[in-house]
């Protein structure tokens, strides 16, 4: 029992410090670079979650800002995809209100408020794209999430330009980098979940 407890403590410590967090998240974030060619029919933003008081979580907000910047630059319709996965409020409904408050024309906003995971994001977004005749999309999501998202969206016959945002990797170290933090632990956990999710769908769809 002592050695098991020690092992768990060591693993928890390592997952909570910046060097290990970077080691886990860096390969995911380096899968795609920010593209220069942005010719498309629509911008698709994937939600990560929201809270019950009509606010987006950090990842969702960062993704929304990335999509909004593209909207101001390209003047393309925005599809925000995200349901009730983390709260009793739809992430997409909250995002739509925020976009309207930021000055985006409501006619330019389409939402999927049914999806619970990335695969469903792709399914419901594909339905919107077929209905609106959007043939090519710019996919906006967190850089660590992009590899799995692109795989699933292409599986559902969407022509995808990956546009990663919300980068988690830090590029400098000091004394504090080796002190455990909850933030590093959360990112390490998200990275591990991405590896498992990617492997799962790779096995389901491609074997």
Low-confidence stretches: none
Helical residue percent band: 40-55%
Q: What is the ordering of alpha helices and beta strands?
A: HHEEEHEHEHEHEH
Biggest sheet features:
5 strands, parallel
Q: Please, how many helices?
A: 7
| Class from secondary-structure proportions | alpha/beta
Beta fraction: 5-15%
Radius of gyration: 18 Å
Overall strand count: 7
End-to-end span in angstroms?
Answer: 40 Å
Strand arrangement across the biggest beta sheet: 5-4-1-6-7
Shape: globular
Q: What's the rounded overall pLDDT mean?
A: 91
Describe the model.
This protein has 207 residues and is of the alpha/beta class. It has 7 helices and 7 strands. It has helices spanning 2-15, 18-29, 58-74, 91-101, 118-132, 146-155, 182-206, and strands at residues 42-46, 50-51, 55-56, 78-81, 109-112, 136-142, 159-165. The strands form 2 sheets. Strands 5-4-1-6-7 form a 5-stranded parallel sheet, with helices on both faces. Strands 2-3 form a two-stranded antiparallel sheet. Strand 2 and strand 3 form a beta hairpin. The longest helix is centred in the last third of the chain and has 25 residues, at 182-206. It is globular and about 60 Å long. The model has no long low-confidence stretch (mean pLDDT 91).
Can you summarize this structure?
The chain is α/β, with parallel strands linked by helices. Helices cover 50% and strands 15% of the residues.
Write the layout of secondary structure elements.
Blueprint: H1 2-15, H2 18-29, E1 42-46, E2 50-51, E3 55-56, H3 58-74, E4 78-81, H4 91-101, E5 109-112, H5 118-132, E6 136-142, H6 146-155, E7 159-165, H7 182-206
Parallel strand pairs: 1-4, 1-6, 4-5, 6-7
Antiparallel strand pairs: 2-3
Helix pairs in contact: 2-7, 5-6, 6-7
């Amino acid at each position: 029992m002592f050695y098991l407890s020690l092992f768990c403590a060591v693993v928890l410590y390592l997952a909570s410090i910046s060097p290990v967090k970077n080691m886990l998240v860096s390969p995911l974030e380096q899968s795609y670079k920010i593209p220069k060619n942005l010719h498309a029919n629509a911008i698709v933003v994937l939600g990560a979650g929201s809270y019950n008081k009509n606010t987006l979580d950090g990842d969702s907000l960062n993704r929304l800002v990335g999509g909004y910047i593209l909207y101001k630059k390209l003047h393309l319709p925005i599809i925000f995809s995200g349901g009730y996965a983390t709260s009793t409020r739809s992430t997409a409904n909250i995002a739509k209100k925020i976009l309207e408050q930021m000055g985006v024309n409501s006619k330019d906003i389409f939402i999927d408020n049914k999806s619970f995971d990335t695969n469903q994001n792709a399914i419901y977004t594909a339905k919107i794209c077929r209905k609106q005749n959007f043939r090519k999309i710019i996919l906006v999501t967190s850089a660590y999430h992009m590899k799995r998202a692109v795989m699933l969206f292409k599986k559902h016959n969407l022509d995808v330009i990956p546009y990663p945002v919300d980068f988690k990797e830090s590029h400098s170290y000091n004394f504090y980098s080796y002190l455990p933090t909850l933030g590093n632990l959360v990112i390490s956990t998200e990275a591990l979940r991405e590896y498992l999710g990617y492997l799962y769908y790779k096995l389901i769809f491609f074997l």
